[in-house]
């Protein structure tokens, strides 16, 4: 019989660098959730975790089988222990809620998580989850991929 791992154990393994966040979430869902997983989708999982950390528990996400609030998703899939993994703030000047520029557009930082040390290619230690003015514009990028202040100043000079 295979020993089941709790969500708390998996989160600890991520924080200790033994598991990736993605592999821990996948393991958690397969071992500890007994409903249909296809209804959630990977991008909606990231959205729900980030939005919960932002305090947007009432925000509604459209899942494959219908709408659910962030609070309902976190509860249904047992994701609460994973919330701290998406709100990492050590060694950063960028905070959740900050506005940043990426590829010339303004985004709000709604999440930040550590990149696994053995990820390839690994350009950054942390990645940011960004939401555009349109909430359907949700992406994640390495911290170094944000537009720099020098680029903004250069653009200002050209105008």
Layout of strands and helices, then pairs:
Elements: H1 7-15, H2 21-32, H3 42-54, E1 60-63, E2 66-69, H4 70-76, E3 99-102, E4 105-114, E5 126-131, E6 138-142, H5 149-158
Antiparallel strand pairs: 1-2, 3-4, 4-5, 5-6
Helix pairs in contact: 1-2, 3-4
What does this structure look like?
This protein has two domains: 7-86, no CATH class; 99-158, no CATH class. The protein has helices spanning 7-15, 21-32, 42-54, 70-76, 149-158, and strands spanning 60-63, 66-69, 99-102, 105-114, 126-131, 138-142. The protein starts with 6 loop residues before the first helix and ends with a helix. A hairpin with a 2-residue loop joins strand 1 (60-63) and strand 2. The radius of gyration is 17 Å and the shape is globular. The strands form two sheets. The chain has a four-stranded antiparallel sheet. A two-stranded antiparallel sheet has the order 1-2. The chain has five helices and six strands; from the N terminus they run H-H-H-E-E-H-E-E-E-E-H. The protein has 159 residues and is an alpha+beta fold. Mean pLDDT is 84; it is low at 151-159. Helix 1 (7-15) packs antiparallel against helix 2 (21-32) and helix 3 (42-54) crosses helix 4 (70-76).
